[in-house]
Design goal:
The chain has a single domain (30-198), classed as NADH Oxidase (3-Layer(aba) Sandwich), CATH 3.40.109. It is 42% helix and 14% strand. The protein is built from 9 helices and 6 strands, in the order αααβαααβββαβαβα. α3 packs across α7.
Length: 223
């Protein structure tokens, strides 16, 4: 039988070596909440967003958009607004269980990383598309698709040597308003990125073992 180009190029041993190296690189990814002011070229950020844009999406609708914020004034406005929301969250709205789950991460209402990070990348999902006459065109699996794209973004930034924090302000509507996004978009999260500061500490947390998250099925008996 004739082999396709992909089949000819594929080598199990080589792929296992690559994936093992990637695993080692990805186990070093840690969310950072303390950034340095070391300069980071905007072209790295733009290329990472291009990589995010290669993500699969429902019916290839690509229901996402990404902002790039580098100026201190805008970061400061976002910090102020986010901290107001976080204050209410931590002191009034958050269920006790949620606060307990957050304890190991040492997060608090003050969000200094927002102004410290070299770039803030607000991620928006598009509920539907709007044409020039404001007609709606349906999108599918919007949040799933935008989430996968954000995963690629975080991975690309990590591979490029940058740290990230996936930040989800409690109320993300203010991002849509502040940044003048169109009415078909919703705020999903903000990816803060840059290099960690010298004294950056990461929480002591662990990841589930492979056996806990992967299930290899030998033929499933019909039920
Ligand atoms: C959808 C999502 C929302 C998150 N929101 C916040 C957040 O609002 N504030 C924060 O400090 N970290 C946030 N994080 C980061 C998580 O706390 C972090 O990923 C988790 O503790 C695991 O740590 P690691 O990223 O170092 O593996 C969020 C992560 C995800 C994926």
């Amino acid at each position: 039988m004739l082999e396709s180009q992909a089949q000819q190029n594929f080598n199990n041993e080589k792929s296992l070596k690559i994936i093992t190296e990637l695993h080692s690189i990805f186990t070093k990814r840690k969310s950072t909440r303390h950034f340095s002011d070391h300069p980071v070229d905007i072209n790295i950020i733009l290329k990472a967003i291009s990589i995010a844009g290669t993500a699969p999406s429902g019916a290839n609708k690509q229901p996402w958009s990404f902002g790039v914020i580098q100026d201190q004034d805008t970061k400061q406005i976002i910090k102020q607004k986010a901290e107001q929301e976080e204050d209410v969250f931590y002191n009034q709205k958050a269920p006790q269980k949620w606060l307990e789950d957050l304890k190991p991460l040492h997060t608090k209402p003050k969000k200094d990383f927002i102004t410290q990070a070299s770039y803030l990348i607000p991620v928006f999902y598009k509920n539907y598309e709007l044409d020039s006459d404001n007609n709606r065109d349906k999108n599918y699996y919007v949040k799933e698709s935008a989430g996968i794209a954000t995963g690629l973004l975080i991975s690309a930034l990590h591979l490029a040597g940058l740290s990230t924090l996936t930040y989800t302000p409690t109320n993300r509507k203010f991002l849509v308003d502040l940044l003048g996004r169109p009415s078909n978009e919703g705020g999903m999260m903000v990816v803060a990125t840059g290099l960690p500061s010298d004294n950056a500490q990461t929480p002591v947390i662990s990841k589930k073992q492979l056996e806990e998250i992967a299930f290899i099925y030998s033929p499933v008996k019909s039920r």
